[in-house]
Each structure stands twice: as C-alpha cells, then as structure tokens.
Amino acid sequence: MPIEIKELHIKINVDEKTAATTTTAQSIDEARILKAISESVEQAVNIEQRKKER
Question: What InterPro entries does the entry give (predicted)?
C-alpha cells in the first residue's frame, strides 16, 4: 500500500551563542546535513509532481 505525504514540516532551532562558538568541522558537517535534507525534500517534491502528472 503506497504512502502519500500531504504535508512536510521541518522545524530547526538555532542557538546563536553556540553557533558562534562551533568549530569549522562542525559547521561543515551541519552544512552537509542541511544540504542533504534540502536535496531529499526536493526529490520528494519532484516525485509527487511526477505522480500528479500521470
């Protein structure tokens, strides 16, 4: 049975004090994680658009 995603909510909390003190390696890892999340959301949207075209 297929699963249909009607809404996707992403909540991110940013603490500016800790963000200013993070190391470069941590910020690079966070950037990679955010990039992966945005790419996966984009792929999910593309899949839904292709399904609607059918």
Answer: DUF5908
Rounded Cα gap, residues 22 and 24, in angstroms: 7
pLDDT tens-digit profile of 1-54?
777 878 888 888 776 665 455 566 677 788 888 888 999 999 999 998 988 887
Q: How many residues does the chain have?
A: 54
Q: Are 5 and 49 in contact, with CB atoms under 8 Å apart?
A: no
CB-CB contact of 7 with 40 (8 Å): no
Domain extents for the chain?
23-53
Shortest CA distance to 34 belongs to which of 18, 54, 12, 52?
Answer: 12
